[in-house]
Design a protein that fits this description.
Layout: E1 2-4, E2 8-28, E3 46-67, E4 72-92, H1 96-110, E5 124-127, E6 134-136, E7 139-159, E8 162-173, E9 194-207, E10 212-234, E11 238-260, E12 266-281, E13 284-286, E14 293-295, E15 317-328, E16 333-344, E17 347-348, E18 358-359, E19 362-373, E20 378-385, E21 393-399, E22 402-407, E23 412-419
Antiparallel strand pairs: 1-2, 2-3, 3-4, 4-7, 5-6, 7-8, 8-9, 9-10, 10-11, 11-12, 12-15, 13-14, 15-16, 16-19, 17-18, 19-20, 20-23, 21-22
């Protein structure tokens, strides 16, 4: 429900969602060095993990915007969320190497003679973390979490052209379970919900007789239990990639955006962001072999305390500029040309800035030209993306014995036609 008065706008509501998830993941590991573990073989060729999740979310929320005066508005909102996830996981396969390897480790950890444990093809093979017994049936667990998110802000209209604002808020991201071929059930524990305390202040300023708009803001985010990709040790596979919780981390920076129309038909836009990120406290995990807490691993399997490292995929600088010029060429027809420039400084896909996972800086240029009907019904465009043919990576990570890199698209040209039927 929502409503308004002369000085306020308000909203209250209820949200309910339920999701049933069924997922299978098959990992081919025949060429990996960490699967030839059973003396004399047979060695593991592949592993399939099947999971189910029954997720139920309930939320209650309210929001209020109230004018304290003609210039000052206060904004306040709050939300309570309850989330429950009933989870099952089963690593299984008919692969003889997988079944023989887990049977061998179960016997070894329990001090039994080799061959005592026999796994029927298709059974779940993860080992119980406490007893080293083969699980045989799906692992079951429930993640039940709740939180209260909120925001509070002030808008101050200096005049018709300038708005100052400040905002404080706290938000949450729900925890989740991994899908991975865990050798022990302890590695199937979920990441818990992450939270962020955010502070932001900025302005929105109309300039040059309304031909220009300048927006800018500074921000500071403080994360607790941020969910990121990490690794944990595994007695069979050596290491496994999965989401982990970083206990404490921060992001701070500023952004600025300018839109300028110096003459009719020409629009210039530019925006830039600078961010500084840091891990304040590194994560630990329980080694299933020793039962002891150990420092976490980064994405290239290096173990240590990476407090002080930057967060993954966070370039210090990001800049975008766009120019668009439109002019009529008849009473019903118009033409346009434009260009878009984007720059990203270097970043890394993991912690500690190792060379093999560094993503170099890159700059791309897109061009476009076309004709359109002045009533907005249709348009035809000839375009080129990454016309300088810049080679760069959009993502990369280490898996098994290799570094996987995703190269972005090379120079690409095309023609597009659009028609508005409304």
């Amino acid at each position: 429900m929502s409503g308004n008065t002369d000085s306020s706008q308000w909203l209250v509501g209820l949200n309910y969602a339920t999701n049933d998830v069924i997922s299978d993941e098959t990992v081919l590991v025949g060429d990996s060095t960490n699967v030839a573990l059973n003396p004399g073989g047979p060695f593991i060729q592949k592993s399939t993990t099947s999971i189910t999740q029954d997720i139920e979310d309930v939320g209650i929320f309210a929001n209020l915007e109230y004018d304290l005066s003609e210039q000052l508005t206060v904004l306040a909102g709050v939300r309570f969320t309850q989330s429950k996830n009933d989870f099952t996981s089963c690593s299984h396969n008919t692969d003889p190497g997988l079944n023989a390897t887990f049977a061998f480790f179960s016997d070894a950890l329990k001090g039994q003679a080799p061959g005592t444990t026999v796994i029927v093809p298709g059974e779940c093979v993860s080992l119980d973390a406490a007893t080293a017994n083969v699980s045989r049936t799906p692992y079951q667990d429930t993640l039940d979490e709740d939180n209260v998110s909120w925001r509070f802000g002030l808008n101050y209209r200096v005049d018709d052209d300038l708005l100052l604002y400040t905002l404080a808020s706290k938000g949450y991201k729900t925890g989740s379970y991994p899908i991975l071929p865990a050798s022990t059930t302890s590695q199937l524990e979920p990441v818990t919900q992450e939270s962020v305390q955010a502070l932001e202040a900025g302005f929105k300023w109309t300039l040059a007789d309304r031909k220009a708009q300048l927006n800018s803001a500074v921000f500071y985010y403080e994360y607790d239990d941020k969910q990121v990709r990490g690794s944990v040790k595994d007695p069979v596979y050596n290491q496994l990639d999965r989401l982990v919780n970083i206990p404490e981390s921060t992001i701070q920076g500023f952004e600025m955006e300018l839109t300028y129309t110096p003459i009719d038909g020409l629009m210039l836009r530019a925006s830039g962001t600078y961010v500084d990120t840091e891990v304040n406290e590194w994560y630990t995990f329980v080694n299933p072999t020793t039962g002891q807490d150990e420092d976490g691993l980064n994405g290239v399997r290096e173990q240590g305390d990476f407090a002080g490292s930057e967060l993954p995929f966070t370039p210090d600088f990001h800049f975008v500029a766009d120019a668009d010029y439109r002019l009529p060429i008849s009473s019903t027809l118009g033409a346009f040309v434009g260009a878009n420039l984007m720059y990203n400084s270097e970043a890394n896909s993991t912690f500690g800035d190792p060379d093999k996972t560094r993503i170099n800086s890159f700059t791309t240029l897109d061009l476009r030209a076309g004709v359109e009907s002045l009533d907005g019904v249709w348009s035809a465009t000839v375009w080129g993306r990454n016309v300088t043919d810049e080679y760069y990576w959009s993502n990369q990570f280490v898996t098994q014995d290799v570094v996987v890199r995703y190269a972005a698209k090379p120079v690409t040209y095309g023609i597009s036609f659009a028609y508005n039927f409304m």
